[in-house]
Fold:
Amino acid sequence: MRVTFLGTGTSHGVPMIGCRCAVCRSDDPRDKRWRPSILVEGAGGARVLVDTATDLRAQALAFGVDRVDAVLYTHAHADHVLGFDETRRYNVLSGGPLPIFADGATLADLRRTFAYAFQERAPQGGGVPQARTFQVEGPFCLGGVDVVPVPIFHGPRTILGYRMGRFAYLTDCSGIPESSWPLLSGLDVLVLSALRDRPHPTHFTVAQAIEAAQRAGARRTFLTHLCHDLGHAATSARLPAGIELAFDGLSMALT
Ligand SMILES: [Zn+2]
Ligand SMILES: [Zn+2]
Ligand SMILES: [Zn+2]
Structure:
């Protein structure tokens, strides 16, 4: 299995429009962060996108994502879904609708946000994304990859993280319910979101993410969904052993 970070920024991306801070003006390529998404390639070849971020087109071109077999959605906030229209290319390339997996609330939001794609009779000529929806109610198998949904708190709402083998991706996390902790045991790699150092009502701070990472005890933890407060080099230097900042394009093989 291989995991590639397509985007590791928060909803504004980094640099942020109109910001002149040191991180937004940084020359370090690891300080350029697209909106949050990962690509998971299963040992059997299945390519699964987690979320269709606002920057999906740029990400696909930069990282050669020329085939996608399915999308797993964590939740329907704009930064995680606005690339949905770009999946039209995957319809053409695969010759069929794209299977998308999400919880019931997220599917309802997607149907509302992209109503033009879910009409009974799709408008002719312009091209709209074609998706086949699957509601996630528990663990399932996707192209040879065992997928376990992991409910997490995102402020007042509960959204989904996903575990695949000994890898788990939990973005937009502000808390982990007690019932989800057993789903995080024995991980090689955990990805956890950490927005910034200042508290936020719907996102872990770096300190909160470190605390959760240490309780989960994965061999390696990568932090994502980072805002412009967190320069890559300076923030990396103060993280405990085994916890690292992710960056766009970071790719790793997992067993
Ligand atoms: Zn900035
Ligand atoms: Zn969100
Ligand atoms: Zn987000």
